[in-house]
Design a protein that fits this description.
Its EC number is 1.1.1.2. 23% of the residues lie in helices and 26% in strands. The chain is α/β, with parallel strands linked by helices and 346 residues long. Helix 4 crosses helix 5 and helix 4 crosses helix 9.
Length: 346
Amino acid sequence: MTTVAAWAAPAAKAPLERTTVSRRAVGEKDVLIDIAFVGICHSDIHQVREGWGKAIFPMVPGHEIAGVVAETGSGVTKYAIGDRVGVGCMVDSCRVCVNCRAGLQQYCSDGPVWTYNSVGKDGQPTYGGYAQKIVVDEDFVVRIPDALPLDAAAPLLCAGITTYSPLRHWNAGPGRSVAVVGLGGLGHMGVKIAHALGAEVTVLSQSLRKKDDGLRMGADHYHATADPATFTDLAGSLDLILNTVSAPLDFGAYFSLLRTDGAMVNLGMPEEAAEVDMQSLFGLRRSMSSSGIGGIPETQEMLDFCAEHGVVADIETIGADEINEAYERVLASDVRYRFVIDTATV
């Protein structure tokens, strides 16, 4: 066991504070990672505040982890000391169910072991990346290409794969019209990746406040959803809508923007239940779906794709003592577009 410095929420809705946590000894297939940077995801805030249900405390959040291998177990074959690596939202799964065998560990039939706020196979709580080090089985570690700076690559481990996976699954690319609802931590990655895939990209945001940013990131069009004309002008024009916001919407209005066989895929997870009028889906074989991160193979594919196309997150780097302030700023939409903690300050 190794004791490392970390920042944790001692109880639900409590401010995070500096503490220490124990990491297991490096096992045969384990990799010890010196964490360099970790992103702040909106889901960190949901879980610290028990917005998604009862949670495990103390909680060390953080599932956008970028760092360097410091030690490897005797049976590790994929990584060596000094390698640049990342860890995303999960650190284990059953490995034997149909989904795991297909590389879809995020849909493990038994449920994956999440990077934090979860219980590992050893029966101990998992602690995330707001810490100096982490020990992870090599099968749940991914390689960060040299072309990607570690700080701006960290958010790719959640925000990047959460948008890349549905864009690939729903065939975003040349000749396809994709809209991204919300230009935040998730949304700005959706715009960049959809553009890199060759799709025609539209941003649907409450206002035009971030229009210049959206166009710079690769959007072809930018519309304010507060303007009723948006839903008239864009009616029946979209193949795919990625909804990145964590709040209920007038889904019927958004369904009206889809062409025949168009799909709206929900990535944000509101704390409250949402209502959907099923009649608004009828007529053009439109569909409503969801998507959760990606498996380990697809996460590596995403990182390689981003390296090839120069896609990284727009970040604001902070010290660990600014975490609580950063949480409030995320809730106020006052970040462009992802906070990343320099773990040298932990």
